[in-house]
Amino acid sequence: MKYLVIIPTYNEKENIRKIIPEVLAQSEEIDILVVDDSSPDKTYEIVSKISEENNRVHLLLRAKKEGLGAAYMAGFAWALKRGYDFIISMDADFSHQPKYLKNMVKAEKEIDVLDGSRYVKGGGIKGWNWKRQFNSRGANFFTHLALGLKTHDVTAGFKRYSRRFLESLDFKNFISSGYAFHVEMVMKAERRGFITQEFPIIFIDRRAGESKIEGELMKSIKVVLRLAWQREGLRQFIKFAVVGASATIVDWLAFFGLSRFLMTGFFSGQTLKQISKGLSFIISATANYITNRKWTFRSRDQHIATQALKFYLVATAGLIFNNLIFYFVTKILSWRDIWGLFFATGIVLFWNFFANKKWTFKK
């Protein structure tokens, strides 16, 4: 088996000379490709001299700095052309300890993405203050929530990729070019059914040089949100929530229109209010159904009457749940009304969405 460790560099002259021999010492099956973005400190000159003396070390010099993801994509293309079986992504600053490369070489060959993880049992981080720890775990939590990934450490950069996985990718369609590239790689692997696995590592803060992560947080959040929007379920949920909010406005407008103007000649007092509220509920539910059918779920089911009945039943059940939850929170728990409204609305929103997705508008 042929393994290639790709090390992207930008101003890493303090680390690169030290890490190369440590990487090579882990296994004779390992070669190194340093992808340098024309570092101002001329890291590439050090690598070039080493490569002249050692045929296991290679240099890919790029014209300018274009981001971590772009550097890896260039390295992957270089590796695939030269027949490597597994390609490993690794930082130059010793935060990814070379000793873990032995785990990657010995691991099962059927694994397509092997992740050196900080967030599984036995893993961890040394040298970070609580703010960096909080940011990292917060980024992982947000990414898990937005993308629904199984991998614990989705932002980790220490990974082994199989040749077959990399060959399946069209990098022209990638959204990210920076640090969120690692997230997009994991997402594509999981969504396409490739085999993924994690093993614990201790991540150590860099020994020398300056971190390149400054300014990447907001860029990564934007990328994750764009990736999340590709999930049909999330798009539908957001649309469903928007439609629900619009239906509430329709309900209110209909109620006030009926109770103040249209129904005043027929009823009065509490009877007027109750009848107006019942009619406004029917009007808003109908508008809600039509909009969700046409826009949210794009249903083509020809049994419209049956589908509409299902929608009304879900809405009625939701109304009952709403009242029961509100009663429980405000009466049993003795919490304030605002919390009753918050929990009742939130829980029923999820109920209505999933019931309609799985039953009413089931494809």
Order of SSEs: EHEHEHEHEEHEHHEEHHHHH
Distance between the termini: 46 Å
Stretches where pLDDT falls below 50 for ≥5 residues?
none
Secondary structure class reads alpha/beta
Number of helices: 12
Number of strands: 9
Strand order of the largest sheet: 3-2-1-4-7-5-8
Estimated radius of gyration? 28 Å
Q: How is the CATH topology of the largest domain named?
A: Spore Coat Polysaccharide Biosynthesis Protein SpsA, Chain A
Summed over residues and divided by their number, the pLDDT gives a mean of 88
Shape: elongated
Number of domains: 3
- How many strands, which pairing sense, and closed or not: the largest β-sheet? 7 strands, mixed
Strand content: 5-15%
- Give the second-level CATH assignment, the architecture of the largest domain: Alpha-Beta Complex
Strands, helices and their partners?
Layout: E1 3-9, H1 13-24, E2 30-36, H2 43-53, E3 57-61, H3 68-81, E4 86-89, H4 101-106, E5 113-117, E6 124-126, H5 130-147, E7 159-162, H6 163-167, H7 181-191, E8 196-200, E9 202-204, H8 216-229, H9 232-262, H10 269-296, H11 304-332, H12 337-360
Helix pairs in contact: 1-2, 5-8, 9-10, 11-12
